[in-house]
Amino acid sequence: MGLASRHLLGLEGVSAEDLTEILDTSVIFREILERPIKKVPTLRGLTVLNLFYESSTRTRISFELAEKRLSADTINFSASTSSVSEGESLRDTVQNIEAMKIDMVVVRHKSAGTPYFLTQCLNSNIINAGDGAHEHPTQGLLDMFTIRQKYGSLKGLRVLLVGDIKHSRVARSNIWGLKTMGADVAICGPSTLLPYEAERFGVDVYTNLNEALEGVDVVNILRIQLERQQTGMFPSQREYTHLFGLSNERLKRLNKNFTIMHPGPINRGVEITSEIADSNSSVVLEQVTNGQAVRMAVLYLLSGKKSVTEENE
Prior knowledge:
four-stranded parallel sheet; five-stranded parallel sheet; Rossmann fold
């Protein structure tokens, strides 16, 4: 019981044993979410700080709900209404908040490495909710959980990540986690949206979507970050859709019983059609629900509690 590290900073280097522990524990919390009363006393008495320096909808709400359903006390931090706007440093901000006796910090920040930095100046458990283009480990875990929920195992599955791989922290967490658990991973996108020396990730690399889709079990469509369009990463949204958008015709290249995933938010009609996003093969909404279970599991395992319901309900 418990993980090798007291923090979750990324999935790179996390052992298969720890990943399995998180995924197995998530099954318990997924069952709890189906109960009429979705709350357990597992983290009663602990205080969790949600430290979000970047805008977020799904991840922030998912973490907050996970904390509340574990009976933790939560504090939501907004940089725009804090002393940060008056020039206070990140170190001073978090150390002052920790002095108020918090136990865990969930952090999202535009700068890669921020969660690791916090481990150097705080005693609290640190959970990375996305740092720059580095990693988004709980998104990677919920994607893995969703796939395992459908197929029973990740080993031997062919998983394709399509889109803006270069800037995607979701892609990196998926790659590290899926490979550790024995999946066969490939990436596809315009050459301008692929990381430099992408092969170093140990994945198959494609710039032709039709070729990449052959023999694939799971397609995880990544958001085209429209805010980056001004940098000229690709000529136009229309051309991107023509070359890399997922259509019904292209689905014919996939293996039977294929799965379509998307971490959201979806740019409908750009990277994926509404018909496919809302189809029976899509597990987009299951990903959202599973995200709560996975985040509950991570909070629980890092807290050091001995059982899910160790106190009387």
